[in-house]
Amino acid sequence: MKKLLLFVGLVLATFSTQAQARKLIFQQPKMGSMFTVQVWTADSVNAAQAATQAFAAVDSLNLIFSDYLPDSELSRLSQTAGSGKAVRVSPALWDILWTSRMAWEKSSKTFDVTVGQLTQLWRQSRKSKQLPSPTVRQKALATTGTQYLQFDAKNHTILLKRPGTKLDLGAIGKGYAAQRMLEIMQKAGFAESLCDAAGNMAIGKNPEAGWTIGIELPNQQGELLASWLVLQQMAISTSGDAYQAVRIGGKNYSHIVSPKTGLGVTYQRQVTVLSKDAAQADWLSTACYLLPVPQALKLAESEQSEILILDNQPSGLKTFTSPGFKKFFKEE
């Protein structure tokens, strides 16, 4: 669904208080991307065990959330679309879909997990470099709409009313997984951890001066924003199209699909969100990418989150930020 453009480092003010501690890094490929756990500790054995548990939790979530695996719980639920059958779902799937329902309402129906048919169609278009025909696109659009998901809290069931609806958690699933990983690390006693799910970061306490996060400038191929962020006990996610844009018919399209048109958006923008947890940061960064700038700023404020928007306009790069975002920049 999106390309996340974040780089993480660790700045230490002094080594005197934690002479025996060091930063450990654990990595495994998960959900089609690289996942990383960074932890500041002197206990390498137990840290490794905790990281293994965190990665195992991601594997379990993938069996629930994946829209690529035909036997995942999500895929099985999608297969019931239009059948009139309400399906009892696991706590994790209920939680993420209910969160997605709330996100859809809060984002003026911009964040929509029922766009699976559209994203699948757009993947084919990006590969073939041909736009889908209006007829095919309208058929896919007719399968979308979070309002057609019926939730029964008493029985913990979900009914997909609209035939052909295909669910896609690509704009929230990795953030959800990152937050779950951090919770596991913290429960194991490693509060000073950072869990990175392909750029969706759940950030724990900092060991000294802080975890520093660099944001890549849009369309600059590795060049970072001059100021770095210093973060702790929060989450960060960035949505942008620096590496996954495609040119079709002389026009650039993002890999992020508009649920209103069924096509990738044509403007060039990068949105970074700071939130209380990684699932929230994940969906907010996508919703704010799709919304007009004034609405994006308002949505972030309503969610008690901070936002940075880098917007490539004909006149050059324009920057928009929420009032509190700048306080997280590292002081020179």
TrEMBL record:
Cofactor or coenzyme needed: Mg(2+); Mn(2+)
Signal peptide: 1-21
Short name of one Pfam family: ApbE
Binding site for Mg(2+): A171, D282, T286
Cofactor note: Magnesium. Can also use manganese.
Keywords recorded for this protein, A-Z: FAD, Flavoprotein, Magnesium, Metal-binding, Signal, Transferase
GO molecular function, one term: metal ion binding
Enzyme class: transferase
EC number: 2.7.1.180
Catalysed reactions, as listed in the record: L-threonyl-[protein] + FAD = FMN-L-threonyl-[protein] + AMP + H(+)
Protein name per UniProt: FAD:protein FMN transferase
UniProt organism field: Siphonobacter curvatus
Lineage: Bacteria, Pseudomonadati, Bacteroidota, Cytophagia, Cytophagales
